[in-house]
Write a structure and sequence with these properties.
The protein is of the alpha+beta class. It is built from 14 helices and 20 strands. The structure holds flavin-adenine dinucleotide.
Length: 479
């Protein structure tokens, strides 16, 4: 083993001796990956192809003791440190440039206790892993909508998806977590054990330690749910989105309809002439009794004159992966998002005009219908404060070639800027890009000062700073 250079917490250059590196390797059962290793390039890649970071070392942690050892090593050498789950965060903070990555991505075990309706989930599990195991027992908990997303990052930032209106956010279903804090202590947190830290990790992201295990509550669901897509030409978007807004405003919590504005993918139920044209896709899932789904979702077919539709009883785990083909890893992504309490006519006009001007076939605007059980929790009950967001808009700037970076970023930023006056001003840290650190304090709103105080207690040196960072110093905002 050779010695190698690394970056310290505050950005200085330093060196590790071969002996140091051997000492790290000796205490990490999953082994370490150095820049000379054949698997290094694969191990440092994340979902967003725009992220190009070169860690000094990757520690493949197989258990809490591996995590403690790697953390102690990083602290002893004052190394920049990151924590990786599914590697999906758009900002790429799970890869510390020049630093040490605590990588738990190989730990994908999910254990279901059907009698207790509880799931024990390892920190590298992806949403697809969780859904697959839970659905074998006809159970589920709210997660996101792309099966390759990591449960860890999604949960720690909040987590919402098709079940959120009925059963709350992912964090509302977290029962306990095992966490290694910056002092190297392994702790169990829950409503009764270190409740303040438990409060903080429900939305506070990776700011407070390394979670090595999650425990969730589960709900009966499916395995078939009434679900599918209804596609309208963008020319009808104004009528369709107004009808959607009216329909969803008072809809029961079982009704979930999200709007996606983009160019039509070559879906088999669409005429070929529609492929590649601008459309509004209504993605619908009924999470109540399957027999009631058809009647409950039928109005979606009458928002305009559909170019095509595909609705019916589908396996829930399959529908959870329905958008996966459009969200494959490796593309270049620049995203921005807003929270809305309501959707004004002016905002809908802005979104429709932006969709018509999208610079590429993969750029899209997602409007997620929320509310229901998510809004029933008080903003101060968990660190996630944006409970007033009845809709979250995520602008997916997405393309394949670096030559399109400027065009894609401009489109995303323009829509973000134009839509801003209509938003709550809050935000969702799981959707922030790397240049949005200044939005963190605003996203946590009323909860930010309390998060800072918990950060001072559990991570006063801000060891865990490769995230949407809560600054320990009172009054300070993330840079
Ligand atoms: C295609 C796509 C679809 C998405 N859809 C949704 C959606 O429907 N709903 C939704 O809510 N979100 C969604 N997201 C956002 C998603 O919640 C975040 O990207 C989330 O961070 C992913 O978690 P991860 O573990 O894969 O990420 P990673 O990049 O591995 O981790 C993100 C951050 O989480 C922290 N972290 C990860 N693991 C741990 C751990 N074990 N302990 C402590 N900290 C840790 C670290 O700070 C890390 O930097 C989507 C993202 C993408 C790219």
């Amino acid at each position: 083993m050779k010695d190698l250079g690394y970056t310290t917490l505050d950005g200085r250059s330093a060196r590790l001796s071969a002996k140091d590196i051997e000492a790290l390797a000796a205490g990490v059962r999953g082994g370490i990956v150095t820049p000379e290793a054949a698997e290094y390039d694969a191990a440092r890649k994340v979902w967003n192809g725009m992220v190009e970071r070169r860690p000094a070392l990757i520690a493949r942690c197989l258990n809490a003791q591996d995590v403690r050892h790697a953390l102690a090593f990083a602290r002893a050498h004052d190394m920049r440190l990151s924590v990786r789950g599914g590697g999906h965060h758009i900002a790429g903070n799970s890869v510390a440039d020049g630093g040490l990555v605590i990588d738990q991505s190989s730990r994908r075990d999910v254990h279901i206790d059907p009698a207790a309706r509880r799931a024990r989930v390892a920190p590298g599990a992806l949403l697809g892993d969780f859904d697959r195991e839970a659905q074998a027992f006809g159970l589920a908990t709210p997660l996101g909508i792309n099966a390759t997303t990591g449960v860890a990052g999604l949960c720690l930032g909040g987590g919402f998806g098709w079940l959120t209106r009925k059963h709350g956010m992912t964090i509302d279903n977290l029962v306990s977590a095992d966490i290694v804090t910056a002092d190297g202590r392994q702790r169990v947190v829950s409503a009764t054990q270190e409740p303040e830290l438990f409060w903080a990790i429900r939305g506070g992201g990776g700011n407070f330690g390394v979670v090595t295990s999650f425990e969730f509550t589960l709900h009966p669901l499916g395995p078939e749910v009434y679900s599918g897509l209804v596609v309208y030409p963008l020319e009808q978007a104004s009528k369709v989105l107004h009808a959607w807004r009216d329909f969803t405003r008072d809809a029961p919590a079982e009704v979930n309809v999200w709007a996606v504005l983009r160019k039509a993918p070559p879906l088999p139920f669409l005429p070929e002439s529609v492929h590649g044209s601008n459309v509004v896709i209504m993605a619908a899932v009924y999470t109540g009794k399957a027999d009631d789904g058809e009647r409950a979702i039928a109005p979606v077919l009458g928002f305009g004159t559909p170019a095509g539709s595909h609705l019916g009883s589908n396996p829930y785990a399959g529908f959870q992966a329905a958008f996966d083909p459009l969200l494959q890893p490796g593309a270049r992504n620049y995203w921005k998002s807003h929270n809305f309490a309501q959707l004004s006519d002016a905002l809908l006009d802005i979104v429709i005009a932006a969709a018509a001007a999208a610079p590429g076939p993969e750029c899209e605007v997602f409007l997620a219908q929320l509310g229901g059980a998510m809004a029933a929790v008080a903003p101060t009950d968990t660190a996630y404060a944006g409970r007033d967001a009845n809709t979250i808009m995520n602008i997916h700037g997405r393309w394949q070639n670096a030559a399109d970076d400027a065009r894609g970023r401009d489109w995303t930023r323009t829509l973000y800027r134009d839509a801003a006056p209509h938003s709550t001003g809050g935000g969702y840290v799981n959707f922030f890009s790397e240049d949005e650190g200044e939005r963190v304090a605003q996203a946590y709103g009323v909860n930010y000062a309390r998060l800072q105080s918990i950060k001072r207690r559990y991570d006063p040196d801000n060891v865990f700073r490769m995230n949407m960072n809560v600054m320990p110093e009172a009054g300070k905002q993330a840079a």
